[in-house]
Amino acid sequence: MALYFVIVNVIGVWGYMFFEGWSFHDALYMTVITLTAVGYHEVAPLSASGRNFTMGLLALGLTGLGLWFAAITAFFVEMDLAGTVQRRRTMKTIAKLRNHVIVCGCGRTGRQVLIELEQSELDFVVVEVDPERVRSIRRRHPGTRVIEGDAAKDETLESAGIRHARGLITCLSENADNLFVCLSARVLNAELTVVARADDRETTSKMYRAGANHVVSPNVTGGVTMAAMLVRPSATTLLEIGNRLQELNLRTDQVAVSSRAAAVGKTLDATHIRESMVVVALLRGADQKQITFNPKGSTTLEVGDELVVMGTPRQLQELGRWT
User: What is the rounded distance in angstroms from the CA atom of residue 34 to the CA atom of residue 54?
Assistant: First the structure.
């Protein structure tokens, strides 16, 4: 673009010097005011040839200015275009999601939740109001569905697909914000499983009243674990193993026994499930409130039972043929 204007200016100066016999300075001045279309008077009366040349030069100048403004506009539009296209693509993808998880807030706790959900291969959407954190998530976790917005607003949760979600985790920095998200989420989707973060026991009870199914207090949990490492060091070793499951290529999973499952009516020993993995617990009854830890091999599996198991990804995959 700059080269274009240089060439046109050279042509203009040469033309006025050739057709009108003007000096270099007068020719340059006339060229500049013609190309910019400012409308000043001519340096001197123009001949017929000079007028024809001026009209041609004016056309070149207007064309150049149009191209210049178009380039500037395109530059600023393209700066935001990539972000706009990405946002639209993300929103279209989210609109198609079903049984996904919504994570509200991606601070220190939220980032760990994000990592765990990635490893579990569940569909999830992150809602974060801080633009810098949003950029960080997109940079560190390419492909993650992120919505930049306030999770406490109903329209933001709606855009995250809350009516079709299976669960919501709110781990915002302020207790009041988490409380408000619980209330909004419960109104928008009564069947949603809501997990909320709370900083103290007093807030925990309020979260349950606001509609949370589960409430986690990092401060309380961390304090109990730290004290247990001194008071009950052997028992605490189990917690350390739990934290290292990923390193050991072990995972915990919760599997429901469907009506078509091959395991229905059979004992755990008959399914040989206990031979390949650890069966931690069996959940039975309404809302799975009947919990049997380390169930016996003679336990008969029924429709609706849920098994909490621990094993390698391959072992857990093979479990699917029974459930």
Answer: 7
